[in-house]
Amino acid sequence: MPDRTNYNEYYNDAASAMKRLLDAGDDVSKLIEAVKSASFLENVPSPERQTLRASKRKLKRALLKADADSRKSLFQSAGDDSEKLKKFVESDMKFKQLCDTYLKLKWRIVKMPGGATRKADMYYKLFGLMKQALEGDLTEDCPMFADNGNIDFHGRFVWDSWNVVKGMPNEEAKKKFVDEFFGFSSSALYKDSRREILA
């Protein structure tokens, strides 16, 4: 049951939350706020809770569509054509500029068991491709411990990501890096600034 002593207040709040959910329509920003403010409805089995859950599903679909549209738009900005992206593969200077942009992206941080953190998976995938394209096969040993004495999770992740593409030709690694850079979901970033390199 809801943690409220005044049930009239609860039902008034529920009615207000329902109105916000319905009034939000297809407006994603309004729907986000409406779903957030109606979260207390999850505590009580009711038609209102079913409406909230339906709104959550609707919001999820809208966010997925917005993300897909963003990725499509990014490709269109790049020419939506692999021929138009060749400049990043054929020009060493352009490729290094792309690598610099990749390193400066605001990557989401993922918490691991035990309190350690790492960056989004795509960061490491791109790291391996970038290093293979620029330096060729990995020759270093896998790091075990960081300078502070703890397990070097980040070092091991970047080592693994580079080692897994061992033997891949530099040009192939470049092309894969470019394709992955413009193709990954913006959900891996706090802020997607990839468009800047296309300006």
TrEMBL record:
Q: Name one Pfam family in it.
A: ACBP
User: Does the keyword Cell membrane belong to this entry?
Assistant: no
> Does the record carry Ligase as a key word?
no
Q: Which InterPro entries match?
A: Acyl-CoA-binding_protein (IPR000582), Acyl-CoA-binding_sf (IPR035984), FERM/acyl-CoA-bd_prot_sf (IPR014352)
For this UniProt record, give its keywords in alphabetical order, as a comma-separated list: Lipid-binding
Please state every residue range assigned to the domain named ACB: 91-190
MF terms from GO for this chain are: fatty-acyl-CoA binding
Gene Ontology BP annotations: fatty acid metabolic process
**In which family does this protein belong, per the annotation?**
Belongs to the ACBP family.
Entry protein name: ACB domain-containing protein
Q: Which organism is it from?
A: Chloropicon primus
